[in-house]
Write a structure and sequence with these properties.
- The chain has 102 residues and is α+β, with helices and mostly antiparallel strands.
- The chain has five helices and four strands, in the order E-H-E-E-H-H-H-E-H.
- The chain has a four-stranded antiparallel sheet with strand order 1-4-2-3, with helices on both faces.
- Strand 2 and strand 3 (36-41) form a beta hairpin.
């Protein structure tokens, strides 16, 4: 595992700083239900900023009915762990293949 954040909402600024200009595979784990969501991004800091925006989460939940967005809104960020599973080269095709492996 490349990085792990046990209380992501309180570590927001550190998460942004450590993942600036990085590409990778990440996992959100709900500490209450045990459910997890795996995703990937060519810009992790930007993706994580979306996850920390309640306005973004609400809008996207209504639009796309995303399970992870709904869960973050329902349970709160403090009931999740965020793990960066792997940092990857900046090639989208490779990134998607690695995400599917997880």
């Amino acid at each position: 595992m490349a990085a792990s954040y046990s209380n992501p909402i309180s570590l927001k600024s550190i998460i942004y700083k450590e993942n600036q200009n990085k590409t990778g595979i990440y996992r959100w784990t709900n500490l209450i239900t045990g459910d997890c969501y795996i995703g990937s991004s060519v810009n992790l800091a930007k993706r994580f900023s979306n996850y920390f925006s309640n306005n973004f989460l609400t809008r996207e939940t209504l639009r796309a009915k995303s399970k992870i967005y709904s869960a973050l809104l329902k349970y709160g960020h403090d009931n999740f762990q965020l793990d960066v599973l792997e940092y990857c080269a900046l090639r989208t095709k490779v990134l998607i293949l690695k995400e599917q492996q997880y």
